[in-house]
Design goal:
Helix content: under 10%
Radius of gyration: 21 Å
Strand content: over 45%
Number of helices: 2
Strand order of the largest sheet: 2-3-5-6-7-8-9-10-11-12-13-15-16-18-19-20
Order of helices and strands: HEEEEEEEHEEEEEEEEEEEEEE
CATH class: Mainly Beta
Shape: globular
Number of strands: 21
């Protein structure tokens, strides 16, 4: 599922990779090829005959061009087969997809003890900490935190009330008070799709900050020709307490409903009257053989006819221990907690979706400097749903080729 392409990113500071080259003008084409094998019964909710075993691949190529001492171009293109990402395993579909994840022009300049960066084009969202370090080689585990997985809400249909929010088993989401008629599999609270927009970043000593204007919400990304575009802002900042220990926060707010619901809104209302908003905090810590990361985020999704809107909170903590130069172990615990929405007549007696917890362990082995083999197991617990139906066993082989470069000047 393309919205699950959490990807991206290699992109936190791509210019820094190019700046490491001595050439003023040059081309670099990092390539990551990943094969994975998964065993899970998740797809049986979509098709009872779906086999538990699946194999997939992902090819991520990131052409980068250094255009001088300050200017650069960055892009990220992926080809993958589904299911590859763990979130894809809820569907029985098998397909191959190609996505342009990012493509932007950037500028970076030193201003004394500060550094200024500008980017314009298709950008990853400035919200959150995980996107800035995520790719197959950098993620020590195989899955992503729950904060970056699908939530069973949709922006292109309207729920009639709290009863409409409780969804039947299966991956699809359906509301009944107007909107699009196509299938929809929900949203990602932190969309890792690229968004058309512009961003300015500033760092000075221990402080870094970024501010982004985009054409749509990170909850419901739109292309430059999409019918549901609305200006959005996203901001983030961080402070490095000491080397290896950084804390950060981010926030966004803006319209998230699609143009498909315009004709079903209450009279005199418009899409911009019902924004989505998110706020998050995170921390990163590293010392010796240990690394730790954690985030917390809270998201509010406003619909008409609701006094208390659907709201979800997420959090995770991740630990990695380097055992030898070739071996490491990692663990992540994630949770999702949903509120009790209230419409014009009643308050939901239970959370609008079951609360969830996920626990993942993995062991990594580097047979050589180009490859990483990861073996992991994930336990997923949903409130009121017993059993091991949603657990996943996975194996990934990641091959990273970073030597494809050419100095032009």
């Amino acid at each position: 599922m393309r919205k699950c392409c959490f990807i991206l990113l290699l992109c936190g500071t791509p210019w820094a990779k190019l700046a490491a080259q001595e050439a003023e003008v040059g081309v670099k084409i990092p390539l990551t090829i990943t094969a994975d094998f998964l065993e899970t019964d998740r797809a049986k909710g979509d098709d009872p005959s779906a086999p538990p075993l699946s194999a997939g691949f992902r090819v991520l190529v990131s052409p980068q061009v250094k255009l001088g001492p300050n200017w650069y171009f960055y892009s990220a293109l992926q080809v993958y087969s589904a299911p590859f990402f763990y979130d894809d395993t809820y569907r029985a579909d098998r397909y191959i997809a190609t996505d342009m994840l990012q493509m932007f022009l950037g500028y970076v300049r030193s201003l004394g003890k500060a550094s200024l960066s500008l980017r314009a084009g298709k950008l990853t969202s400035a919200f959150g900490e995980f996107p800035l370090r995520y790719d197959g080689a950098a993620n020590p585990l195989l899955d992503q935190p729950l904060l970056y997985t699908h939530l069973k809400l949709r922006p292109d249909q309207l729920p009639c009330g709290v009863a409409d929010l409780s969804q039947a088993p299966g991956p699809d989401v359906e509301f009944h008070c107007g909107g699009a008629g196509n299938e929809n599999y929900g949203i990602t609270p932190v969309g890792l799709w690229g968004l058309p927009g512009a961003e300015v970043g500033l760092s000075r000593r221990r402080v870094d900050a970024r501010f982004q204007l985009t054409n749509s919400s990170p909850v419901n990304p739109q292309g430059v020709l999409g019918p549901s575009q609305h200006p959005q802002w996203t901001a983030g900042a961080g402070y490095t307490i000491r080397q290896g220990f950084r804390v950060g926060m981010s926030a966004f707010r803006g319209p998230w409903l699609s143009a498909a619901v315009k004709g079903y809104l209450p009279s005199s209302s418009k899409v911009s009257d019902f924004p989505a908003s998110g706020v998050g905090v995170g921390a990163e810590w590293a010392r010796g053989r240990w690394n730790a990361n954690g985030e917390w985020g809270r998201f509010v999704f406003r619909y008409p006819r609701f006094r208390t809107s659907p709201t979800s909170s997420f959090g995770y903590c991740e630990l990695k221990r380097v055992i030898t130069p070739r071996f490491y172990s990692a663990f992540r615990a994630s949770y999702q907690a949903n509120n009790h929405p209230e419409d014009s007549t009643a308050r939901s007696a239970a959370p609008f979706l079951p609360n969830r917890q996920a626990y993942e362990i993995a062991v990594g082995f580097r047979p050589n400097h180009l490859q990483l083999l990861k073996v992991g197991y994930e336990w997923l617990r949903m409130e009121g749903i017993p059993g091991t139906h949603d657990n996943v066993f996975g194996v990934q082989l990641v091959t990273s080729i970073n030597s494809l470069s050419k100095a032009l000047k």
